[in-house]
Design a protein that fits this description.
There is one protein chain. By secondary structure, this protein is of the alpha+beta class. The chain has 17 helices and 17 strands. The protein has a 5-stranded antiparallel β-sheet, with helices on both faces. The chain has a 5-stranded antiparallel β-sheet with strand order 7-6-10-9-8, with helices on both faces. It has a 5-stranded mixed β-sheet with strand order 12-14-15-17-16, covered by helices on one side. β6 and β7 form a beta hairpin. α14 packs across α16. The chain starts with 6 loop residues before the first helix and ends in a 7-residue tail after the last strand.
């Protein structure tokens, strides 16, 4: 019972009692089948039944114990499965976290000098095969040569001092690519291990280097342009200044503490109220502002500055801030002052030029008229008494006076084209050119010229000036004709958008009228197409064709006054085409 504790052992011991009684009754029995005999047999039967019942009860108990054991094992298995699943989820979570953060983990057993790497560390080091066992030699090979000494020193100190370690260094992948990494970890004394992580910080490092470069460029740009940056937050009286802000105000960077109150002491006394008013109004309206004022440097030097500030709501809370830029405009102010002086000088010069134009139009023309008049009298009254040489001198004098008269008239016309006020009115181009042709009808008829006019629409302009443009160009077409070839002149127009013109100065969304005047005259070398609109530019001698070389210069000046463009194309010996491009309306340009 002590060795085999259970129902069967108990009943087996209990079956001894009926066996003992059965033997006793058998001893008392005197004949077969008497009461003692029967009782003995009955007790013996009971002694057989008792162990059998014990066996049955023991089997039942054993089955129940097995069921309980199975149920307990099932619970333990489920618990272990849950723990395994949870562990697997955590491993997946850790792997995802390592993959997202580009962070790999490793373990070094100091006793066995064996390494263990996580999958992400294989990727960071540039290995696609995760099956090989990392070694100390491979780990040494991965670290860039110039960083090996630094990393080994950090790891050695961690082992000796039984502490943490951290180091930023570069690794060299098998394909030759360099990466910046951050290694961190600690020494685990109980198991004599180094446990650490390696994070790929290449993008962060490159962004940091780029940010530093941008900061350097910004600092240098501020120094070159004398622009300083600042920021003020409503929750803080202090004002943050960039280095150039200190330089502009005559201080070494970060040598003084700046707040709203102290900054007013930097401003020139006469400008303080204006600055205070502008800033207070902007804060009240929560708006941006721009203000110009003077500052006084510690040396007493007065400088002009211009400040532009932008209002910005804070993302957290109800506060706000101002981001500003302050530029030293002292040189600009000095340049403006000199420019005003130059403008005044130019105004005086213009008055002198106007006076000269008056003299040219009156005083200079009067002697010319007398020269021509007295020349005509010499020729008519004393022509018979003057020899051929003398008459030639008189003829040359008259021609020179005539050229002088024409030159003065053209210069005055050019001067008027440059000085006349711009009062634009709608001009019907067909009517305008028709009138110009009517003025040239005598020349057209004498030269047997044919003019084909196909023009329509109107532009905003100064009618007399535009009439002079067309008259000068048409006169040139009638003058520069080929010998024995009647002139044929075609005048046409079309309306185009500025974006379709191959002219960089044209306004993209502005409508233009393009007038083309084409003739069949002598033409010119197209290499001179840009020079023919310059003053006194002639392609032929005065003996061949009369003129002063000012006519096309006047045309260009007038077209420029109308914000238009003029150019020419030609084939020498075949003819020329002049293109006059005028904006239909001027309100889109001015």
């Amino acid at each position: 019972m002590q060795r085999f504790h259970g129902v069967f052992s108990k009943l087996l011991v209990l079956s001894i009692a009926p066996l003992f009684l059965a033997q006793l009754f058998m001893a008392l029995s005197s004949q077969a089948f008497d009461s003692y005999f029967n009782a003995a047999h009955y007790l013996r039967f009971i002694s057989y039944i008792v162990p059998l019942v014990g066996i049955v009860l023991n089997y039942v108990e054993t089955v129940r114990n097995e069921q309980r054991m199975i149920a307990k094992l099932d619970v333990e298995i489920r618990e272990k499965q849950a723990i395994a699943a949870n562990l697997s989820e955590r491993e997946d979570l850790l792997a995802n976290a390592e993959r997202i953060s580009h962070l790999g983990s490793w373990e070094l057993n100091i006793k066995t000098n064996s390494y263990k790497w996580s999958d992400e560390l294989y990727k960071i080091y540039g290995f696609n095969d995760f099956s090989f066992q990392p070694t100390h030699a491979i780990n040494e090979q991965v670290i860039a040569p110039e960083y090996k000494k630094k990393v080994n020193k950090e790891l050695s100190n961690a082992v000796i001092n039984k502490t943490h370690f951290a180091a930023e260094y570069q690794i060299l992948q098998p394909n030759g690519v360099r990466k910046y990494v951050l290694g961190q970890g600690y020494y685990y004394g109980k198991e004599h291990k180094l446990i650490g992580t390696v994070q790929d910080i290449t993008q962060l490092k490159e962004a940091t280097l780029k940010l530093r470069k941008n900061e350097t460029l910004l600092r240098e740009a501020e120094a070159v342009s004398h622009n300083g940056s600042w920021e003020w937050n409503s929750g803080d009286e202090l004002v943050f200044w960039s280095d150039e802000m200190y330089n502009i105000h005559g201080y070494l960077p970060h040598s003084v503490i700046v707040n709203l109150h102290t900054y007013l002491s930097f401003i020139y006394e006469d400008d303080i109220n204006e600055v205070r008013l502008q800033f207070s109004t902007a804060r009240k309206n929560r708006a941006s502002f721009t203000v110009g004022y003077r500052i006084v440097r510690p040396s007493g030097e007065i400088r002009y500055v211009s400040t532009t500030a932008k209002f910005k709501e804070n993302e957290v809370g109800n506060g706000y801030s101002y981001l500003g830029n302050t530029q030293d405009v002292t040189l600009l102010k000095e340049t403006e002052r000199k420019l005003e002086e130059k403008i005044n000088e130019l105004n005086v010069s213009n008055k002198d030029l106007e006076q000269f134009a008056y003299v040219a139009s009156h005083d200079l023309q009067e002697p010319l008229r007398k020269i021509r008049a007295f020349g005509e009298r010499l020729k008519t009254r004393f022509g018979d008494s003057i020899d051929v040489e003398g008459q030639d001198y008189i003829e040359r004098m008259q021609n020179a006076a005539e050229r002088m008269q024409t030159l003065i008239d053209d210069l005055l016309a050019f001067s008027r084209a440059a000085r006349e006020a711009k009062h634009f009115t709608p001009v019907n181009l067909n009517d305008l050119i028709t009138k110009v042709l009517a003025d040239l009808d005598y020349t057209i008829e004498n030269n047997h010229a044919t003019v084909d006019l196909a023009i329509q629409g109107q532009v905003e302009g100064i009618a007399p000036q535009l009439a002079q443009v067309f008259q000068n160009i048409l006169s040139n077409s009638l003058k520069f004709m080929r010998p024995n070839v009647p002139p044929i002149i075609n005048i046409s127009s079309k309306t185009v958008l500025g974006s379709t013109l191959q002219i960089s100065a044209a306004v993209q969304n502005q409508w233009y009228c393009v007038i083309q005047i084409t003739d069949n005259g002598i033409g010119f070398d197209e290499s001179y197409a840009g020079k023919i609109f310059d003053l006194f530019q002639r392609l032929h001698s005065r003996a061949e064709y009369k003129g002063t070389g000012i006519g096309l210069a006047i045309c260009k000046k007038i077209v420029d006054n109308h914000s238009g463009f003029i150019f020419a194309k030609s084939i020498e010996g075949e003819g020329s085409s002049f293109f006059i491009i005028l904006p239909i309306k001027h309100n889109a340009i001015s």
